[in-house]
Amino acid sequence: MKKVLSVVLAVAVLVAFTTTVSLAVSRGEAVKAVTAPTIDGTIDDMWSAVPELESTIKLFGTGEPATGKTKVMWDESTLYFLTVVTDNEISHTSPTNWDKDCVEYFVDEDNSKGAEYDSVDDAHLRAGVDGDPASAEGCAFPEQVAQGFAKTETGYVVEYSYKAMNPLKEGQVIGFDFMVSDDQGDGKRDTAMCWNEDATGDNWRDASVFGEIELKGAADTKGTAETKDAAEDTVADTGADVSAIYAVGTILVAAGAALQLRRK
Ligand SMILES: [Ca+2]
Ligand SMILES: [Ca+2]
Ligand SMILES: [Ca+2]
Ligand SMILES: [Ca+2]
């Protein structure tokens, strides 16, 4: 009986471990830009070497949301974002920024994860659509940002640059998230989709809920081999996959414990 009890306890501890160790912060990679992309809404060739981050986390809303895929590049002074959005109706009729179609970027350069924006290097950046001006909080504006926009058959493309508050360097991990908001035309936001698994809807005021991206070196000039690895790493690094690995590990250990019990 004692043995049964200790095995049950061991399994319970492992299950608890699995739950608490789940790493829900999304992690991705940015590629160093050898030359700066042109911020005009036309996708430069160099973007093809950058892994995608997808907005899979629905913060609120019902129905089919607008979704986006974002790529990040960087150099010593600047972060560059490219977001390809699927949105069947472009709308920026509302007088309030957050009720319009838009892409928002959230940056915490030193990844300090403050529960409030730190007034040092945290920024909330908003790219408007179809001539709607960009806006930004937590940084100087408009000197630090530039925005390009283009409509596509399935939505739109945003290209965006943000001049960093401090010099950026390879290997640096910055706090980051992006959000795609969608209005279907009545001037009220319908859905919002984020990249970071831990997103709470507070990313406009709380830098502790951002994901993380690592500033990697320039892409392999010969082709996509290095890029492919980077993309696979990005997927492997998400919290969901880490949780899955721990869950499988727990099942294996629990199965081992049961076997041990049967043997005794
Ligand atoms: Ca461009
Ligand atoms: Ca829309
Ligand atoms: Ca910070
Ligand atoms: Ca609406």
Characterization of this structure:
It is a single chain. The chain has 264 residues and is α+β, with helices and mostly antiparallel strands. The chain has a single domain, classed as Immunoglobulin-like. The chain contains three helices and 13 strands. Strands 1, 2, 3, 4, 5, 6, 7, 8, 9, 10, 11, 12 and 13 form a 13-stranded mixed beta sheet that branches. Strand 7 and strand 8 form a beta hairpin. Helix 1 packs antiparallel against helix 3. The longest helix has 25 residues. It is globular, with a radius of gyration of 21 Å. One calcium ion binds next to loops.
CATH architecture: Sandwich
Structural class computed from helices and strand pairing:
alpha+beta
CATH topology: Immunoglobulin-like
- Characterize the overall form: globular
Distance between the termini: 11 Å
Which small-molecule species are bound to the chains here? calcium ion
Indicate the low-confidence ranges by residue numbers: 11-22, 223-264
Key phrases:
single chain, 264 residues, alpha+beta, globular, disordered C terminus
